[in-house]
């Protein structure tokens, strides 16, 4: 979670939020990431850990629904946790989407690219009525944009003699 004021009792803030959302699962851990700076406007990220991936997904979903109703929650951002490798891959996807958006802007077509929470790049096109819609059958052209080295799947390897 980002843009949460630091009051010293982060677990209480998250528990109150869970109560407000009627969310039964309570986090297993709530902590700030990084080191405190002298800049009062800079807020450290708040890491909230749940007992399961499913519970964290439900929390994010309910929170995003509540953001529509409550003005005070609109400034707060949530994203799923990532390992360092996953975060590097995500940043690489953002770079690719930015390049694709720059190319689309230069060619002045009604196309836009977005990066999802899982790192996937999605393509959108503007309809005749001015609304954006996803191009579901579009795939990232792998020959032009590399996402980094592919991880080997070692679970299905077998030695041949």
Question: Could you describe the 3D structure shown?
Answer:
- The protein is an alpha+beta fold and about 160 residues long.
- It has 2 domains: about 10-75, no CATH class; about 85-135, no CATH class.
- The chain is about 30% helix and about 15% strand.
- It has 3 helices and 5 strands; from the N terminus they run αββααβββ.
- The chain has helices at about 10-20, 55-70, 85-105, and strands spanning about 30-35, 45-50, 110-115, 120-125, 130-135.
- A 3-stranded antiparallel beta sheet has the order 3-4-5. A two-stranded antiparallel ribbon has the order 1-2.
- A hairpin with a 5-residue loop joins strand 4 and strand 5.
- The longest helix is centred in the middle third of the chain and has 24 residues, at about 85-105.
What number is the mean pLDDT? 82
Fraction in helix: 25-40%
Beta-sheet strand percentage? 5-15%
Strand order of the largest sheet: 3-4-5
Helix-and-strand structural type: alpha+beta
Helix and strand element order: HEEHHEEE
Rounded to an integer in angstroms, the radius of gyration calculated over CA atoms is 20 Å
Shape: globular
Number of domains: 2
Distance from first to last alpha carbon: 52 Å
Number of helices: 3
Number of strands: 5
Biggest sheet record: 3 strands, antiparallel
Low-confidence stretches: 148-161
Describe the structure in brief.
Residues 142-161 are annotated as: Disordered. 32% of the residues lie in helices and 15% in strands.
């Amino acid at each position: 979670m980002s843009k949460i004021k630091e009051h010293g009792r982060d677990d209480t803030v998250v528990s109150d939020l869970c109560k407000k959302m009627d969310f039964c699962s309570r986090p297993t851990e709530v902590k700030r990431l990084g080191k405190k700076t002298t800049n009062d406007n800079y807020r450290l990220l708040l890491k909230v850990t749940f007992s399961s991936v499913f519970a964290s997904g439900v929390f994010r979903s309910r929170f995003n629904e509540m953001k529509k109703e409550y003005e005070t929650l609109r400034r707060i951002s949530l994203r799923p946790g990532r390992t360092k490798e996953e975060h590097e891959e995500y940043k690489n996807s953002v770079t690719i989407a930015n390049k694709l958006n720059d190319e689309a802007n230069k060619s002045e077509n009604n196309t836009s690219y977005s990066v999802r929470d899982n790192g996937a790049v999605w393509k959108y096109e503007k309809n005749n009525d001015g609304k954006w819609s996803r191009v579901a059958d579009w795939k990232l052209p792998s020959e032009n944009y590399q996402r980094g080295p592919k991880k080997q799947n070692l679970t299905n390897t077998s030695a041949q003699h």
